[in-house]
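User: Please predict the structure of the protein below. I'd like the answer in structure-token form so I can feed it into my own downstream comparison script.

Assistant: Understood. Taking the following sequence of 95 residues as input:
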Amino acid sequence: MICMKDRVFLDTDIFLYAHDKNPPKKRDIARDLIFDVYKAGSGAVSTQVLAEFFQTYVVKFTMPSISGIRELHFMSQCRIIEQTLFRRSEQRSGN
């Protein structure tokens, strides 16, 4: 079990590995990590991760959209971080 005090950012690949059938070892590690992070309440995902996951899950894994929406609902239990870095750099440069 992982003991976490800080937020753990979960990238798109972690969620995709958790659904991939090959290789099973990578899938199992990803699932264990996601479970531990959720149990600790320390997960964080970005809006970009949500979008990338949905697109890849539905297209690559040829899953129905409703299944992808269910996965997004599960993922949204993490803290969601908006992609604002670009906007902030624009504000600093005066654009």
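That's the full token string. The longest strand covers residues 43-46.
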